[in-house]
Automatic annotation (TrEMBL):
Belongs to the glycosyl hydrolase 1 family. It holds the Pfam family Glyco_hydro_1. The keyword Hydrolase applies. InterPro entries: GH, GH_1_N_CS, Glyco_hydro_1, Glyco_hydro_1_AS. It comes from Loigolactobacillus jiayinensis. GO terms for molecular function: hydrolase activity, acting on glycosyl bonds. Coiled coil: none annotated. The active site is at residue 378. Keywords: Glycosidase, Hydrolase. Its EC number is 3.2.1.-. This is Glycoside hydrolase family 1 protein.
């Protein structure tokens, strides 16, 4: 017997900037992803004091420009998703396809026509689209001309974009998310906010101002969605990393509580509860400023209160461990959010600590806190896959990772958590957001492309493809 409810949304997740390619086709403008170099040093390069967002092809590679050519091959890809039995497909709409500069008053018709085809192709196979409105791909002009999300003018630009796509697709698309991993800006504001060292990322007041502006923009999207159709589900999307103290030392316990507030809870509290949490002032004062220093208005706070999100989408890849006492110097090098190594956990090829039980804990923590439906919209294992001469990929390690996380979700459902669905990340191999590499593979489908952009782009189902097909067919009963 399956522990998952009838109608559970099994599927997979991608982002436009990591798989589409066609970066100057169909009238598309440049996005921040197009200007970020490929390779493991991409964040370090972007945070150099003189980084100017100019493309330098003689100096760097830009794998996002070609992606995996989904722009031309989406029918083939969605047919493979249908073969696996997907009930839903989470993808993003590239903002710079719809508003190439971000500040136009009229959308780009060719961009909308492209997503018309994506949505239609999904519905042809009874796959429900789950759309992320903004996923690490804001138009580059909004950064170079306006300074990124710290500028309140972006609220209006996003509102126009959101209104355009919601109005066009609300009759076909029930599930939406406002911003991908909005809280990730605490550690890397470049992707979500367009902030790097050269335009203010080192000043935490800018990051919190940018968040406020995004919260207001997101509330407007919720408002627009509900005006179009009150049954539309518009959620937020968080990066959640279950966080432990390294030991029982009360100093570490307090530091863990504070880290949870700052990272796992703050952005969710505002968007789900519709108000800034009680600990906001204490949080901001550690950075040397106050809530009163932010540019907020009574009307904006009322808008937040009136338009909380309908559900919480979140990514879960790893947990984090906190030690502020210096008892251990063993840093968790691969974790994007830092911390020390957890001695009880193994790590992926890229150093991310694998912790399925942490997902059950995360689901319980969030559901008890918010009492709103949860949706695991990213989870997966980035690994170096080997393909045989006859195009077989025996990725038992990926199957093992996903099986344990699905078992953890089943446990959370047993615990009483209202869980809507599961869309593992990178259901087809794509360009990694954190490293800009193809060799960090997540997919059920192997794409013949290397880190240098060489390969046939042919698609080959991995062993995990037929395994996941069975999982979906049995509604999670056969793992």
């Amino acid at each position: 017997m399956s522990k998952f409810p009838k109608g559970f949304l099994w599927g997979g997740a991608t982002a436009a900037n990591q798989l589409e390619g066609g970066y100057r086709e169909g009238g598309k403008g440049l996005s921040i992803a197009d200007a970020l170099p490929g390779g493991p040093e991409r964040f370090k390069i972007a945070n150099q004091p003189d980084f100017d967002w100019q493309l330098k092809p003689d100096q760097y590679t830009y794998p996002n420009h070609a992606g995996i050519d989904h722009y031309h091959r989406f029918r083939e890809d969605i047919a493979l998703f249908a073969e696996m039995g997907f009930k839903c497909y989470r993808f993003s709409i590239a903002w710079s396809r719809i508003f190439p500069q971000g500040d136009e008053t009229e959308p780009n018709a060719a961009g909308l026509e492209f997503y018309d085809q994506i949505v239609a192709e999904c519905l042809k196979y009874n796959i429900q689209p789950v759309i992320t409105i903004s996923h690490y791909e804001m138009p580059l002009n909004l950064v170079t001309t306006y300074g990124g999300w710290k500028n309140k003018q972006l609220i209006g630009f996003y509102e126009r974009f959101a209104r355009t796509v919601l109005t066009r697709y609300y009759k076909q698309v029930k599930y939406w998310m406002t911003f991908n991993e909005i809280n990730s800006a605490l550690h890397f504001p470049v992707m979500g906010q367009g902030l790097v060292a050269s335009n203010g990322a080192n000043d935490m007041q800018n990051i919190y101002q940018a968040w406020h502006n995004q919260f207001i923009a997101g509330a407007k999207a919720v408002q627009i969605g509900h005006q179009l159709d009150p049954t539309l589900k518009v959620g937020c999307m968080l990066l959640y990393a279950t966080t432990y103290s390294y030991n029982a030392n009360p100093v570490n316990q307090l530091a863990t509580l504070k880290q949870n507030q700052a990272f796992n809870q703050f952005c969710g509290d505002v968007q789900v509860r519709g108000a800034y949490p009680s600990y906001t002032e204490s949080l901001l004062q550690q950075y040397g400023f106050s809530f009163n220093d932010l540019d907020t208005t009574a009307d904006e706070l009322a808008l937040l209160k009136a338009n909380p999100v309908d559900y919480i989408g979140f990514s879960y890849y790893m947990s984090a461990t906190v030690d502020v006492t210096g008892e251990t110097q063993d840093k968790a090098s691969g974790n994007l959010i830092g911390g020390v190594k957890n001695p009880y956990l193994k790590a992926s090829d890229w150093g991310w600590q694998i912790d399925p039980t942490g997902l059950r804990i995360a689901l319980n923590e969030m559901y008890q806190r918010y009492q709103k439906p949860l949706f695991v919209v990213e989870n997966g294992l980035g690994a170096k896959d080997e393909i045989s001469a006859d195009h077989q990929v025996n990725d038992n390690y990926r199957i093992d990772y996903l099986r344990k996380h699905i078992e953890a979700m089943a446990g959370a459902v047993d615990d009483g958590v209202d869980l809507m669905g599961y869309t593992p990340w990178g259901c087809i191999d794509l360009v990694s957001a954190s490293t800009g590499q193809m060799s960090k593979r997540y997919g059920f489908i192997y794409v013949d492309l290397d880190d240098n952009g060489q390969g046939t782009l042919n698609r080959y189902p991995k062993k995990s493809f037929s395994w996941y097909q069975q999982v979906i067919q049995s509604n999670g009963a056969k793992l």
